[in-house]
Amino acid sequence: GNNEAKGFFLPNNVKDISTSPDGLKIFYLFESQDNEDNSESSLIGITLNLLNNKKIQVFDSPFTEWLSLWPNSNLITLTTKPSADILGYMYTIDSAGKNLSKILGGINGLTTLGSPDGKLILYGNNNLLLYIYNINSRNSDLLGVKTLPEKCVWGKASDVIYCAVPKSISPGEYPDSWYQGEISFSDQLWKIDIKTGNTTMVLDPVTVTAEEIDGVKISLSESENYLFFINKKDSFLWKLDLKYHELRNS
Predict the structure, then answer these.
(1) How confident is the prediction along the chain (250 residues), in pLDDT tens digits per residue?
(2) Per-residue DSSP letter, 171
(3) What element of type H or E holds 177?
(4) 62: preceding bond cis by omega (within 30 degrees)
(5) Which long-range contacts (CB under 8 A, 24 or more apart) does 85-90 make?
(6) Which residues contact 185 (CB under 8 A, 6 or more apart)?
(7) What dihedral angle (degrees, nearest 10) is formed by the CA atoms of 44, 15, 178, 20?
(8) pTM score, two decimals?
(9) Of all helices (H) and strands (E), which one includes residue 176?
């Protein structure tokens, strides 16, 4: 039948994995030991075509801590793993494995989220300031909300971003304190218009649910009428009707 599951063998030491927008390819990073005594390791990036199982090596680095995203069919982004005290760097590579270019660098606590059209990068730093970087013009614009790119999602047309935005931010080492669960947020949901820079609050979940939500894994439905997110506090999935502002626990 059509519902058979196919398995793919990936190396044991896969550090990170992302899927192409059409779902037909995956990019994975794995650590390879170059010699017998494991003294020289490097990180290798491979694209795997799920239709024909063809693998192509497109990246390798002596640094082993990278996070990848595949926001646009032609573009894979690679960002160093973030920490408040570490200068972060972001590179892009085309899906054929050519044109590795440095996009951002020297930013503490850097995390990034590329736009679906491959032209813009949402990025944040250890002060939870959010910026939009335009790859062509090389300009950065500061946005009017403070949160982390991993609490946001791009609209398909790359013209809008929805984010879970903390009402207040306690002093901490970001993003480390939040990743490790030492600090939890109570978020409102905001919409950012990329062309105008206008930010509008869509909903404060507490008014509807009497529950505080620390939103992660934010995604939009195909029609962009619904916003889905997981509450980091308890891993429950929520669905927000963007038209009627109704919030449901799925």
Answers:
(1) 566 666 667 888 899 999 999 999 999 999 987 666 666 789 999 999 999 999 999 999 998 899 999 999 999 999 999 999 999 999 999 988 899 999 999 999 999 999 999 999 999 999 999 999 999 999 999 999 999 999 999 999 999 999 999 999 999 999 999 999 999 999 999 999 999 999 999 999 988 888 899 999 999 999 999 999 999 999 999 999 998 888 888 7
(2) S
(3) helix 176-179
(4) no
(5) 85/173, 90/121, 90/123
(6) 164, 166, 167, 169, 178, 214
(7) 70
(8) 0.91
(9) helix 176-179
Distance CA 226, CA 210 (A): 21
Neighbouring residues of 30: CB distance < 8 A, sequence distance ≥ 6: 10, 11, 13, 14, 15, 43, 44, 46
- Cβ-proximal residues to 4 (8 Å cutoff; 6+ apart), any chain: none
The whole-angstrom separation of Cα 215 and Cα 205 is 10
Transcribe 52-112 into DSSP letters. T--EEEEEEES---EEEEEEETTEEEEEEPP-TTSEEEEEEEETTS---EEEEEEEET-EE
DSSP states along 10-52 = --TTEEEEEE-TTSSEEEEEEEEE-STT--SEEEEEEEEETTT
Greatest distance between any 2 Cα atoms in the chain = 61
